[in-house]
């Protein structure tokens, strides 16, 4: 059961990473003026939060690995 949960977490992390990469490319393709605007700053903040979510999911998967090793 833990393996199934871990697989789901890794799959979600992968989908989220793909989304972040696509949105980062979209952000990077915008002008510097747009990036420095309020809307651009909000988008960058959102991307930062999504990166944190990917990191948290990766940490969760690693913690499940650790648990599986001791079970």
Total helices: the number is 3
Strand content: under 5%
For the secondary structure, the number of strands is: 0
Radius of gyration: 16 Å
The residue-averaged pLDDT reads: 97
What portion of residues is helical? over 70%
Shape by Cα distribution: elongated
Provide the low-confidence segments as ranges.
none
Distance between the termini: 13 Å
Helix-strand string: HHH
Structure description:
It is a single chain. Helices cover 92% and strands 0% of the residues. By secondary structure, the chain is mainly alpha-helical. It is elongated. The mean pLDDT is 97.
Task: Briefly characterize the structure.
This protein has 71 residues and is an all-alpha fold. The protein is built from three helices and no strands.
Topology at a glance:
Elements: H1 2-29, H2 32-35, H3 38-70
Defining key terms:
71 residues, mainly alpha, 3 helices, 92% helix, elongated
């Amino acid at each position: 059961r833990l393996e199934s949960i871990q697989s789901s977490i890794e799959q979600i992390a992968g989908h989220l990473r793909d989304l972040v990469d696509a949105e980062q490319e979209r952000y990077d393709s915008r002008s510097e003026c747009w990036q420095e605007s309020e809307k651009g700053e909000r988008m960058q903040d959102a991307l930062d939060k999504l990166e944190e979510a990917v990191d948290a999911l990766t940490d969760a998967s690693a913690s499940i690995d650790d648990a599986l090793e001791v079970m």
